[in-house]
Design goal:
Chain lengths: 170, 156
């Protein structure tokens, strides 16, 4: 997959007292992700072209994509398409990239959400609301053994913008 | 991407009062902010300074002190010519209870477009606030050397 056409639109950086191996495991396993990702299960086939899937707590397919880059313990990028009718037709694919770098005894995790066309802040607000909660919770899980219980209201601003575009949301 | 402001949100398992204390006390800041002390009497209009190992790097003025909800000060780098901003920049911390957690929002604004200072603080704040979160949740700040942050602040 050629990912050159994707441009970064949301970047979130967080530092954690954890090894790159542990962070990688947490980012790529359903067992971990259920704890820090609002109960969602990440299933990923860790090779270029492999499937990336997120299942909602009830098992329903919520997000699907494909692995674009995979450098174990350092870099992982994949498309990340929420399964709502007409979303991908109207907004194009979403690309998520995780980069893990050593920072002293800690690591720096950088999440970049990229898109293949300009999108306005209303559309991007959903990710900008979600990522800090997900990654703050992941940090707590790896440092304390307990994920955070972040009760998040639905991303109303994004949902209203999607509705305006005729995208059907649950 | 090159908006002249920096926004960072994190969720911390603590109370607004403890987080407020950590944001305004040098005993805390020395541990999570690369050894930096926050010098101010925290009255609105009072002076504010960031001092590391006796060297003042930034000075400003306290704008808001609404304990434990909203803290704001101006911020003007004085150490390095290449990071000096023509006008002081402004930092606003908002603390909101979020169930058993606190949602901390930092907005740092007032940069000239594509400003070098903005690049430096965009690298610095995630490290400082990640370390603050670790300190409040685990009792230990993160051991992040300044040299691990990237070239913008390495030489400061």
């Amino acid at each position: 997959m050629n990912i050159d056409r994707f441009k970064p639109m949301t970047v979130y950086t967080i530092y954690m007292a954890a090894t790159p191996e542990k962070v990688w495991q947490a980012l790529t396993s359903a067992e971990f992700s259920r704890k820090y990702f609002f109960g969602n299960a990440v299933e990923i086939d860790l090779r270029i072209g492999g499937a990336y899937i997120v299942r909602a707590p009830d098992g329903a397919l919520h997000i699907s994509g494909e692995v674009a880059e995979c450098v174990p313990y350092r870099k992982l990028s994949f498309t990340f398409n929420v399964n709502w009718p007409e979303l991908i037709e109207k907004l194009g694919a979403t690309l998520v990239t995780y980069e893990i770098e050593p920072a002293g005894d800690a690591i720096r995790l950088t999440m970049t959400e990229s898109h293949d066309r300009p999108l306005d802040d209303d559309i991007l607000s959903g990710g900008r609301q979600g990522w800090p909660a997900i990654l703050s919770s992941l940090k707590s899980l790896l440092e304390t053994g307990q994920a955070l219980v972040v009760k998040m209201a639905p991303p109303e601003r994004m949902l209203a913008a999607l509705k305006k575009l005729g995208i059907k949301t649950p | 991407m090159s908006k002249p402001e920096f926004v960072y949100v994190t969720y911390i398992e603590t109370t607004p009062e403890k987080l407020w204390e950590a944001l305004t006390s040098s005993d805390f800041s020395r541990r999570y902010w690369f050894g930096t002390e926050l010098q101010s009497d925290w009255r609105i209009g009072s002076s504010f300074a960031l001092v590391t190992n006796g060297i003042t790097s930034d000075v400003g003025e306290v704008l808001e002190f609404d304990r434990p909800r909203r803290l704001s000060y101006t911020f003007n780098h004085i150490l390095r010519d290449d990071l000096r901003n023509a006008e002081p920049t402004k930092v606003v911390f908002t603390l909101e209870p979020h169930g058993p957690l606190v949602k901390l929002t930092l907005i740092h604004e007032g940069f000239a477009k594509a400003d070098k200072l903005r690049d430096a603080i965009s690298t610095g704040w995630p490290a400082i606030l990640s370390s603050l979160k670790s300190l409040l949740e685990t009792g230990s700040a993160l051991a992040i050397p300044r040299t691990a942050l990237g070239k913008e602040i390495q030489s400061s």
